[in-house]
Automatic annotation (TrEMBL):
The chain crosses the membrane at residues 53-71, 77-94, 160-179, 199-221. It comes from the Bacteria. The keyword Transmembrane applies. It holds the Pfam family DUF2270. InterPro entries: UCP01500 (IPR014470). Keywords: Membrane, Transmembrane, Transmembrane helix. This is DUF2270 domain-containing protein.
Length: 240
């Protein structure tokens, strides 16, 4: 009876044993290849999510601009609403970009230190290059702050969308024929008229202009913000 219990305990211990680590060079190479394919899959998946958010933002801009500029009955707040929706998509994309950056960094470390070295060895290879990947696997953490991710996405894509929306909004409030109370005038001829046309419900036009100016001041600052020369920016021009 005791022998059977001991044999059962031994079998359970064997079943719970962790998989053996690769020992030979062939096993290690096979492991790295499969790991690289897995990280490439995750990186590609998050890259697809980023592109999808950008496509949604472009669709929002195109759709709401066609609604706002195609008929004078559409209020200029439609363009402001488009700015709000694009900003929401930008916040989502910045979060997704932080995840993408983690997997991209792992893939690039493998490519730079392992595959490139296998194709053309160089003497300046760091012997501890895999330590950063192992540390990231044990304790995953973001490599870029939310602020930097936000600024990077504004600089790469969203600054142009915001510029188009600003031009469309300026055209909307400065062209009487595009406003609900259509007149014979082609353009406004005074600053007071433009401020009056920018009114939004109970909000006077000057307050709307101040909010829009402050928001675009932030967009302009983010567009000109210089990223630090770390990460992939320090290893080449091809980066996302």
């Amino acid at each position: 009876m005791a022998a059977n219990q001991g044999q059962t305990a031994l079998e359970e211990k064997i079943e719970r044993r962790a998989p053996s680590l690769p020992i030979t060079s062939a096993e290690k190479a096979n492991m790295i290849i499969h790991y690289y394919r897995g990280e490439m899959g995750r990186m590609t998946s998050w890259r697809d999510r980023i592109d999808r958010t950008t496509n949604w933002a472009i669709t929002v801009v195109a759709a709401l601009l066609s609604v706002s500029l195609s008929t004078p009955t559409a209020h200029h707040s439609v363009v402001l609403f488009a700015m709000l929706l694009v900003s929401l998509l930008l916040l989502i994309e910045a979060r997704r970009y932080r995840f993408f950056d983690v997997y991209r960094a792992r893939v690039r470390k493998l490519e730079r230190h392992y595959f490139a070295q296998a194709l053309f060895p160089q003497a300046d290879l760091k012997p501890d290059w895999a330590e950063a990947i192992a540390k990231s696997l044990r304790t995953p953490c973001f490599l870029i702050s939310y602020r930097d991710a936000l600024f990077r996405r504004i600089r790469r894509n969203y600054s142009w969308m915001y510029l188009i929306l600003l031009l469309a909004w300026g055209l909307k409030i400065s062209t009487p024929k595009l406003l609900p109370d259509e007149t014979e005038a082609e353009l406004v001829f005074s600053w007071r008229e433009a401020v009056h046309n920018a009114a939004l419900g109970p909000l006077p036009g000057w307050s709307v202009l101040v909010v829009v100016a402050a928001f675009y001041g932030f967009i302009f600052y983010a567009s000109l913000h210089q990223a630090s020369d770390d990460g992939e920016l320090a290893h080449g021009e091809v980066h996302v």
